[in-house]
């Protein structure tokens, strides 16, 4: 568990120079054997990429889009993507180094993303999508004030930039929260 004596997290926006750090961080949280050290693994339902450099570069360059990096002692330990989509914030690509999952880092990254959407961009609502089979993750977000909207969206099963499904039934549940 993160304690009061732990070095605090520092947040900054990613740049193109951070791509080499981001791809392995996000991959380690979701894919392959390394991801099984944490609780966010998707290794049983998806193979392949979780993110690719081209998508990260687009996210970094797009106006009102920010990839947040959380650093401790100068080392990137977590990240998330937050962007304005019209009058709503969108939260995604959330990754915490597997060995630090469950230590409070994720709660702080989510809170910082919500702060960016609310204070920097004046948005009053945050939305996200989560693979609907990930009930433990959905429950984690619900404990932080998010609600299931009842809407689902298709998983991009034919786009290998985001993974190769091991089953045909993957879809996203939509969650939202007033900010």
Structure description:
This protein has 179 residues and is an alpha+beta fold. Helix content is 25%, strand content 33%. The protein is built from four helices and nine strands. It has helices spanning 19-30, 53-61, 105-120, 135-142, and strands at residues 10-13, 46-47, 65-72, 75-85, 88-96, 125-131, 147-154, 164-165, 171-178. The strands form two sheets. It has a seven-stranded mixed beta sheet, with helices on both faces. A two-stranded antiparallel ribbon has the order 2-8. A hairpin with a 2-residue loop joins strand 4 (75-85) and strand 5 (88-96). The radius of gyration is 15 Å and the shape is globular. The chain starts with 9 loop residues before the first strand and ends with a strand.
Q: What is the count of DSSP helices, taking H or I runs of 4+ residues? A: 4
Helix content estimate: 25-40%
Order of helices and strands: EHEHEEEHEHEEE
- Please state the average pLDDT score: 87
**How much strand content do the residues show?**
25-35%
Distance between the termini: 27 Å
Q: Helix/strand/pairing class, anyone? A: alpha+beta
Number of E strands:
9
Overall geometric form: globular
Largest β-sheet summary: 7 strands, mixed
Give the strand line-up of the largest sheet.
1-3-4-5-6-9-7
Q: How much is the radius of gyration in Å?
A: 15 Å
Low-pLDDT stretches: 1-5
Q: What are the SSEs and their pairings?
A:
Elements: E1 10-13, H1 19-30, E2 46-47, H2 53-61, E3 65-72, E4 75-85, E5 88-96, H3 105-120, E6 125-131, H4 135-142, E7 147-154, E8 164-165, E9 171-178
Parallel strand pairs: 5-6
Antiparallel strand pairs: 1-3, 2-8, 3-4, 4-5, 6-9, 7-9
């Amino acid at each position: 568990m993160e304690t009061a004596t732990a070095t605090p997290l520092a947040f900054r926006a990613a740049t193109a120079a951070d791509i080499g750090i981001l791809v392995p961080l996000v991959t380690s949280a979701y894919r392959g054997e390394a991801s099984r050290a944490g609780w966010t693994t998707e290794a049983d339902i998806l193979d392949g990429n979780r993110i690719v450099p081209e998508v990260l570069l687009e996210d970094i360059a797009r106006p009102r889009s920010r990839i947040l990096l959380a650093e401790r002692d100068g080392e990137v330990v977590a990240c998330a993507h937050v962007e304005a989509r019209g009058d709503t914030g969108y939260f995604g690509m959330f990754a915490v180094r597997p060995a630090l999952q469950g230590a409070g880092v994720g709660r702080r990254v989510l809170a910082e993303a919500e702060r960016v959407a609310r204070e920097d961009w004046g948005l009053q609502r945050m939305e996200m999508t989560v693979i609907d089979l990930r009930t433990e993750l959905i429950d984690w977000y619900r404990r932080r004030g998010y609600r299931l909207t009842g809407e689902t969206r298709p998983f991009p099963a034919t786009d290998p930039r985001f993974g190769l499904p091991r089953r045909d039934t993957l879809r996203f549940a939509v969650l939202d929260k007033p900010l």
